Prior knowledge:
By secondary structure, the chain is of the alpha+beta class.
Amino acid sequence: xxxxxxxxxxxxxxxxxxxxxxxxxxxxxxxxxxxxxxxxxxxxxxxxxxxxxxxxxxxxxxxxxxxxxxxxxxxxxxxxxxxxxxxxxxxxxxxxxxxxxxxxxxxxxxxxxxxxxxxxxxxxxxxxxxxxxxxxxxxxxxxxxxxxxxxxxxxxxxxxxxxxxxxxxxxxxxxxxxxxxxxxxxxxxxxxxxxxxxxxxxxxxxxxxxxxxxxxxxxxxxxxxxxxxxxxxxxxxxxxxxxxxxxxxxxxxxxxxxxxxxxxxxxxxxxxxxxxxxxxxxxxxxxxxxxxxxxxxxxxxxxxxxxxxxxxxxxxxxxxxxxxxxxxxxxxxxxxxxxxxxxxxxxxxxxxxxxxxxxxxxxxxxxxxxxxxxxxxxxxxxxxxxxxxxxxxxxxxxxxxxxxxxxxxxxxxxxxxxxxxxxxxxxxxxxxxxxxxxxxxxxxxxxxxxxxxxxxxxxxxxxxxxxxxxxxxxxxxxxxxxxxxxxxxxxxxxxxxxxxxxxxxxxxxxxxxxxxxxxxxxxxxxxxxxxxxxxxxxxxxxxxxxxxxxxxxxxxxxxxxxxxxxxxxxxxxxxxxxxxxxxxxxxxxxxxxxxxxxxxxxxxxxxxxxxxxxxxxxxxxxxxxxxxxxxxxxxxxxxxxxxxxxxxxxxxxxxxxxxxxxxxxxxxxxxxxxxxxxxxxxxxxx
Length: 686
């Protein structure tokens, strides 16, 4: 039956090519979108018959490039661009038609995964939109406001009717071990050349080709080192938090396409440790939750503006009924994979860095989220996390993240790659002992004061947890190289009441987005006010903040205060001028940082974990997360964004006891606490 439905839809779509000339002003739209869908169908047939895999890379590349051309090259003149759609069809109709096209764009990934069912529902969406426009032209001779509402209703019904299928698809890809395209590549492909890259169905550019070629040139010993640090970090993450990794049998590997040699070795090491591996494509459907920040396996973001233009398309049709339905479907999908989800240990992430971020346009033509949508999105996130924790218990799972550069970083790629490999393999014993000296001082403090320098206006007081039994308890975690590689920070959940002042950074990259002259006014641990200098218009800055830092909330608490100690990382960043491309994973280790959102111990507040010195880490919650048992919606925000002040913007960081005794930790960008001076060596070498 699925084959019959697919054939019927395919044949109907192919026939529409002869009718498009009768579509009036919509002729150009259906010619472009119908042509794209036809190209996907033709390639899908080559994939299911296996003919595609017999082609040489030089023949695969133009087929794949053709599918991405309206995003990669012709975006300004494509109906994927809401500017173009709105200019031709008006605001309401243009936004809906552009959103439909963006959703249909997901068909590429489903074709390469040979997911006929997912492909069928998108072919159906196209035909339903086509039919509705044709009918309106027949009835009115011109599509108007009523047609826009009709198309919006079709998109809304599509999102509602297929929520269960999308939820099952997502859960199956993660927990079901159906690794589809990636599984075959990791297990079987010849990684000595780059031909295999075109079998993913993702956009393949210079980054993927060059990083794959570079890794192919490395010795087996170096690949083994990269994979073992990564895998050992994951397993160690369970050990240091007192979790039993033997309760788990599945780990998800997330990676940038091109790192297959490392992934193949990691799969082998994970399996030797008793863990099977899940490899899933980063979400391709905007309705299902596609985001600019990718999770899964992914390639270069073809066009960041395209991703940003459509990230809020759900606001066209999202309401409480749909939100509740999606939550029900999410729960049902997890119930379907209950056994498999229970064995899931968490993700092991190979992060990439090197792509230049830019301030993206906030377009009037794009869908703009209103307050109602923001509130529903936030509520969905919090409730979905609660549902997930019923099936994949937070107190049992862990993760690890490691980062490597990609060639987009520039001419210094190989040098930075080797520096990063050294960074990721730094011995943790030295840092453990130095960081413990800081913790010993911080545990006696009432608060910490942070003052900026060199144009940084920070003047902030962070209130600390008061220990009941200092001989057995600590407020700060001594973070070495396990879940967050590389080594180098101490962190805590600050007390909100009494945490106040100004947090300022001149330029920082958060969630892969640039923030210029960011100022957060903190009162009792909450963001009381903010300003940003990305755009001339305050409205645009506020919308940017709401989207990429506040994540639809009106305010956020300071969920973490930390002191990064990895001066080797800082020296590398300064030496190669990498601030604009550095992932937060490394950047957070290069100065004090402050996370806005949930604490580091979100949903794990009642666990007991210990530092290497045997003391229990007790500062695990704040006055907001304390409401988790009575009102979870008020306890969690579903986000955690680290904001780092680099050493060269730091005048002073010192601890203050209740009696007023002061202990300097950093002064004029250098570590001055007795026993920490060795951290200054990389700084002095600069």
